[in-house]
Amino acid sequence: MTRPPGPPTKASINGRFATQALSGVQRFAVEITRALQARGGYELITPPGGRAEWPQAREAGRRQGQAWEQLELPRAAAGSVLLNLGNTAPLLRRRQLIVIHDAGVFSTPEAYSKAFRSWYKLMQGWLARTGVPIVTVSEFSRREILTHLPAKAGQVAVMPEGADHMNRIDAAREILVRQNLAPNGYVLCVGTLAAHKNLIALSALAKALAARNVPLVMVGGLGGAAFQGADARRLPQPARYIGRVSDAELKALYQAASCFVFPSRYEGFGLPAGEAMACGCPVVAADISALRETCGDAAEFCNPAAPDDIAAKVLALLDDLAQQENLRRRGADRAAQLTWTAAADRLHSIVEQNFTEQKLERA
Q1: C-alpha distances in angstroms, 96 versus 78, 126, 231, 355?
Q2: How far apart are the first and last CA of the chain?
Q3: At the top level of CATH, which class does the domain 11-162+339-358 belong to?
Q4: Could you give the CA distance from residue 186 to residue 253 in angstroms, rounded to a whole number?
Q5: pLDDT tens, position by position, 23-74
Q6: Domain 164-336, CATH
Q7: Helices 340-354, 24-39: inter-axial angle, 10-degree rounding
């Protein structure tokens, strides 16, 4: 006799990201959570304070950070499938799924502190070994995970990211006036001092742009506690450093830049390239597998290990208005394919595939 299907599985989202500073991984978690909750059936559980930004969330426990995630979240999510969107998850939890964005702690260990590397290797290795389903954001990252973690091929699935969050933001063009930046009069870079972001490779470009009186504008924080050796020696000079900006200011900077340069030598997906394309900004990206996947034919590619090649590709683009317009058009077409709704639909289908005895359904 065939057993009738059970009721829809209850699904919970690990909301640790709700109390963290916004970076690429947290952006992913924010946008995927919004898209999953829009389709219904997903509850967000956060540490204390999470409801400040997520009023519909359920706060649980008293702790924060790893202690909350390991000790209090499992009890709060009892009876549900737990989705962990930001590289970490409870060790002693069976019905869960984890999104691991890349294998950077293995492939670029110099970018991270020893404590951070050790914890990630222990935790992710344990989760892979115990059969927790893993999702990642590019075929490149899937290959990396299968190389460095004891996961089986069928255990690791791929989903895309989105870039259409930029469409709902109103650009704050006041930043251009405040920073004395002329439209189409500067080159933009978004990144941190983490070693794999490779900002020092822009030194030749910075000097070449200065000779043309064109600013290289650098946006972003200085790394954070997880990153190893985040210091000014990794900064190209001369350049205009304006630090962290709001989403609205970032959109204005993307829209008004002559081009966006992304020299990173290691990415899982490369969200800033997607954001730039969504804002109509021509992209010059490092020729690495993940960025090839993200950008397709909508970017110029450069050798991240060759500062002179990076400079040459950017300068050639600045001198070619027709190619700038071509990349804007191709970038818009590519960005239109990168939606958070499509990404959430893919993740939902992966959850269904892995927990088929009680499939998730739309509310």
Answers
A1: 11, 13, 38, 9
A2: 29
A3: alpha beta
A4: 9
A5: 899 999 999 999 999 999 999 999 999 999 999 999 999 999 999 999 999 9
A6: 3.40.50.2000
A7: 70
